Amino acid sequence: MSKTAQRWAVNYLRHVETDYDWRRDCVAGRVGVVEARLLIGEQVLNAIADQYRCLAAECARQKAARL
Fold first, then answer.
1. At 42, which helix (H) or strand (E)?
2. Fewer CB near the terminus (10 Å): N or C of the chain?
3. CA 67, CA 64: separation in Å to the nearest integer?
4. Nearest CA to 14 among 53, 40, 35?
5. What's residue 59's pLDDT?
6. How many domains does the chain have?
7. Burial (CB count within 10 angstroms: exposed 0-12, middle 13-18, buried 19+), residue 55
């Protein structure tokens, strides 16, 4: 699978197959929102990497890009 396809797959899984967007929306306007959103993103990417080992490197890349 190409790197582009891996990126698309992780993004699809994050936005469509998880509650990522809902969880991010729930913390909007609260104290600590930046840290909470980073944590939510990390948790979701870890879950994707655990379930789809072939996407683990892309999940790690996306986590590193968030910092």
1. helix 33-51
2. C
3. 6
4. 40
5. 98
6. 1
7. buried
C-beta neighbour count of 29 within 10 angstroms: 7
Specify the residue for token string 């936005």: 15
Q: What is the DSSP letter of 53?
A: G
Instruction: Report the alpha-carbon distance of residue 29 to residue 13 in Å, rounded.
Output: 26
pLDDT of residue 65: 96
Asked if residue 49 lies in contact with residue 60, where contact means CB atoms within 8 angstroms, the answer is: yes
Task: Return d(Cα 15, Cα 18) in angstroms, integer.
Answer: 6
- pLDDT tens-digit map of 17-61: 999 999 999 999 999 999 999 999 999 999 999 999 999 999 999
Q: Rounded to whole angstroms, how far apart are CA atoms 55 and 26?
A: 27
- Measure the CA–CA gap between 7 and 31, rounded to whole angstroms: 31
